[in-house]
């Protein structure tokens, strides 16, 4: 059987075909991450509304989205949304992918925002009140400048996690690297080389970005420490 | 509402894959987590390669690789599709959880192991009686969180033809398109119900981890 074992010939034949999907993978990573950043912010705002039953609904909606599979959520958006009577809308595969992945990860992102806000010391809130800051000024000048820096590395880690989730959208026919690899595989009955290429692409890119995020974290820590020193003096 | 019993036929596969892959992941996590702390360079390096490869790529890619590529590369099957699903999910989350095990052991206060040494304990006793019980407490919340992630990832096994809840849902969808919203709605609720005890256990784990741990 000529399809068994590794073939460099097939490897180099499949390489450009699979790489064609790389831009789609990267685009979807950033697009759904941006969507998650925005929706995560909305979740965080909604959770701060101090009405008990409303709060309860928001918390459990987030819990529901977070603890059910993103794959099923993608299927719901892509297959079920268009058939729902009256409110149903049809989204393209790419739109469905951004909505599905973005919505799923928005619940995690919101948690990160919250931890950032919680990390701001109580004295800071009291000081803002004592100095008679408006709500807008309090957030803009006191809370957010201190809440955001420590969340940046965490957000970066979620960007990498999200990047590794993108191949899920091959199941709703988005032409990213995994779909192209599978197509090549089924056409030539040779999955080994294209799938290995996909694995290598992920390894290389996720390590490169993890390295960049670590450097960013170090730089932010330096700045953050300076701020902390200024605070204590 | 005949959708519910239809989809429920897949519960058995979803639950068995969840239990088996979670067990495999826990086992690998402790083996790899402790190997990472071994004095032997070779063991440390080999474990590092395993952890980095499985954390650096996607689970869905690993699953397809085991499913399609292994038979081509070695001319063997890893076993039934059920086993391929369990092995892929177990290997993936074992790699993530090994970092939890390793970092928890490292996080136990240094004074604890010094005290154990001062009490003339052997290194094995020190690990078993002093370090490990405290480290395990610290691991509990993360183990809970990762078990929820494992539950969510079991939905991938429908892609390699296993008959889980998502598989039965897809079958209904292909024959009766108008039922699609109900089908996927029911499946999401199924997963959420399965997740509820895990969410509860994670919160319990957080409470246990907070008290009586080493560093406090």
UniProtKB/TrEMBL annotation, chain A:
<keyword id="KW-0813">Transport</keyword>
<feature type="transmembrane region" description="Helical">
    <location>
        <begin position="71"/>
        <end position="91"/>
    </location>
</feature>
<keyword id="KW-0812">Transmembrane</keyword>
<keyword id="KW-0472">Membrane</keyword>
<dbReference type="InterPro" id="IPR043429">
    <property type="entry name" value="ArtM/GltK/GlnP/TcyL/YhdX-like"/>
</dbReference>
<comment type="similarity">
    <text>Belongs to the binding-protein-dependent transport system permease family.</text>
</comment>
<dbReference type="InterPro" id="IPR035906">
    <property type="entry name" value="MetI-like_sf"/>
</dbReference>
<dbReference type="InterPro" id="IPR000515">
    <property type="entry name" value="MetI-like"/>
</dbReference>
<feature type="domain" description="ABC transmembrane type-1">
    <location>
        <begin position="22"/>
        <end position="213"/>
    </location>
</feature>
<keyword id="KW-0029">Amino-acid transport</keyword>
<keyword id="KW-1133">Transmembrane helix</keyword>
<keyword id="KW-1003">Cell membrane</keyword>
<feature type="transmembrane region" description="Helical">
    <location>
        <begin position="22"/>
        <end position="46"/>
    </location>
</feature>
<dbReference type="Pfam" id="PF00528">
    <property type="entry name" value="BPD_transp_1"/>
</dbReference>
<dbReference type="InterPro" id="IPR014341">
    <property type="entry name" value="Ectoine_EhuD"/>
</dbReference>
<protein>
    <submittedName>
        <fullName>Ectoine/hydroxyectoine ABC transporter permease subunit EhuD</fullName>
    </submittedName>
</protein>
<dbReference type="InterPro" id="IPR010065">
    <property type="entry name" value="AA_ABC_transptr_permease_3TM"/>
</dbReference>
<feature type="transmembrane region" description="Helical">
    <location>
        <begin position="189"/>
        <end position="213"/>
    </location>
</feature>
From TrEMBL, chain B:
<keyword id="KW-0813">Transport</keyword>
<comment type="similarity">
    <text>Belongs to the binding-protein-dependent transport system permease family.</text>
</comment>
<keyword id="KW-1133">Transmembrane helix</keyword>
<keyword id="KW-0812">Transmembrane</keyword>
<protein>
    <submittedName>
        <fullName>Amino acid ABC transporter permease</fullName>
    </submittedName>
</protein>
<feature type="transmembrane region" description="Helical">
    <location>
        <begin position="15"/>
        <end position="37"/>
    </location>
</feature>
<feature type="transmembrane region" description="Helical">
    <location>
        <begin position="49"/>
        <end position="70"/>
    </location>
</feature>
<feature type="transmembrane region" description="Helical">
    <location>
        <begin position="82"/>
        <end position="101"/>
    </location>
</feature>
<feature type="transmembrane region" description="Helical">
    <location>
        <begin position="143"/>
        <end position="162"/>
    </location>
</feature>
<keyword id="KW-0472">Membrane</keyword>
<feature type="domain" description="ABC transmembrane type-1">
    <location>
        <begin position="11"/>
        <end position="200"/>
    </location>
</feature>
<dbReference type="InterPro" id="IPR010065">
    <property type="entry name" value="AA_ABC_transptr_permease_3TM"/>
</dbReference>
<keyword id="KW-1003">Cell membrane</keyword>
<dbReference type="Pfam" id="PF00528">
    <property type="entry name" value="BPD_transp_1"/>
</dbReference>
<keyword id="KW-0029">Amino-acid transport</keyword>
<dbReference type="InterPro" id="IPR000515">
    <property type="entry name" value="MetI-like"/>
</dbReference>
<feature type="transmembrane region" description="Helical">
    <location>
        <begin position="182"/>
        <end position="201"/>
    </location>
</feature>
<dbReference type="InterPro" id="IPR035906">
    <property type="entry name" value="MetI-like_sf"/>
</dbReference>
<dbReference type="InterPro" id="IPR043429">
    <property type="entry name" value="ArtM/GltK/GlnP/TcyL/YhdX-like"/>
</dbReference>
């Amino acid at each position: 059987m000529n399809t068994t074992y590794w073939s460099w010939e097939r490897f180099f034949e499949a390489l450009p075909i699979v790489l064609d999907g790389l831009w789609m993978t990267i685009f979807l990573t950033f697009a759904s991450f941006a969507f998650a950043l925005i929706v995560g912010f909305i979740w965080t705002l909604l959770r701060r509304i101090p009405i008990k039953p409303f709060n309860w609904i928001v918390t459990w909606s987030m819990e529901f989205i977070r603890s059910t599979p993103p794959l099923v959520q993608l299927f719901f958006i892509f297959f079920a949304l268009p058939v729902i009577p009256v409110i149903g809308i049809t989204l393209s595969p790419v739109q469905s992918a951004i909505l599905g992945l973005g919505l799923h990860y928005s619940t995690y992102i919101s948690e990160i925002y919250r931890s950032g806000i919680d990390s701001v010391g109580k004295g800071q809130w009291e000081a803002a009140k004592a100095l008679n800051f408006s709500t807008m000024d309090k957030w803009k000048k006191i809370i957010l400048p201190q809440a955001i820096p420590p969340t940046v590395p965490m957000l970066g880690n979620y960007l990498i996690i999200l990047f590794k989730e993108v191949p899920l959208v091959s199941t709703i026919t988005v032409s990213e690297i995994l779909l192209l690899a599978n197509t090549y595989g089924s056409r030539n009955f040779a999955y080994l080389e294209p799938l290995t290429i996909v694995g290598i692409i992920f390894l290389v890119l996720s390590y490169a970005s993890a390295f960049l995020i670590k450097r960013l974290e170090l730089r932010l820590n330096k700045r953050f420490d300076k701020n902390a020193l200024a605070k204590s003096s | 509402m005949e959708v519910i019993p239809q989809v429920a036929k897949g519960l058995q596969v979803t639950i068995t894959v969840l239990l088996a892959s979670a067990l495999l992941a826990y086992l690998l996590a402790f083996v790899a987590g402790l190997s990472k702390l071994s004095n032997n360079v070779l063991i440390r390096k080999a474990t590092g390669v395993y952890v980095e490869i499985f954390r650096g790529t996607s689970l869905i890619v690993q699953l397809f690789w085991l499913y399609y590529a292994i038979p081509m590369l070695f001319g063997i099957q890893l076993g039934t599709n059920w086993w391929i699903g369990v092995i892929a999910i177990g290997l993936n989350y074992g790699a993530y959880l090994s970092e939890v095990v390793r970092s928890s052991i490292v996080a136990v206060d240094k004074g604890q192991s010094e005290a154990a040494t001062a009490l003339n304990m052997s290194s094995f006793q020190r690990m078993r009686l002093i370090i490990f019980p405290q480290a395990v407490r610290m691991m509990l919340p993360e183990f809970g969180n990762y078990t929820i992630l494992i539950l969510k990832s079991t939905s991938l096994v429908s892609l390699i033809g296993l008959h889980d809840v998502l598989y039965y849902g897809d079958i209904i969808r292909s024959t009766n398109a108008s039922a699609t919203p109900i089908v996927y709605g029911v499946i999401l609720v199924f997963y959420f119900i399965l997740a509820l005890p895990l969410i509860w256990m994670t919160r319990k784990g957080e409470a246990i981890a907070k008290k009586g741990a080493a560093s406090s």
